[in-house]
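Action item from last week, closing it out:
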Amino acid sequence: MIPSSLYASYSRALADVALETDSAPAVTKDLLVYREIFREVPEVITALHNPGIPRAAKERVLFALMEKYPVGSITGNFMRVLLDHNRLAYFGEIVDCYLKTLDERRGILSAQARVAFPLSEPQVEDLRRSISGAMGHPVKLEVRPDPDLIGGLVLQLGSTVYDGSVRKQLENIKQRLTSG
């Protein structure tokens, strides 16, 4: 296993190039296609990471893949660098880190909301707009139901958690009543 700082190094380098050349949308699309390919056919990654398979054979496999599923030159070069440095086994983690890096550089905040019941798309969009307005930045919002919540929501922005759940409100009321 490689440390997350190494994922970040590859991710930042790719983000630098993609943003400098205005090719981030194309690079992102390419990476997402290959992340899905590697998820669907994990044997490809296993073969490309296998030290018993000669480098030339690995290169042929990667080139054949890129011929069948073409990518832009930046993505192709990046994938060859990962192959040369024996890092393709960590492709998914590197892509995830790249996507986070792009969001950070674009000033997009990432938020996760746990809610008591599933929200409709308009409700999710209203919540995203409210959070974005409060934070002064665009927000990428992930919402998931949490059956442990009675009502309200628990919002996580980075390392900060905002607990607006009914359970937390009831705990606060109980504490005020018992303390004084």
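Closing note: The chain has eight helices and four strands.
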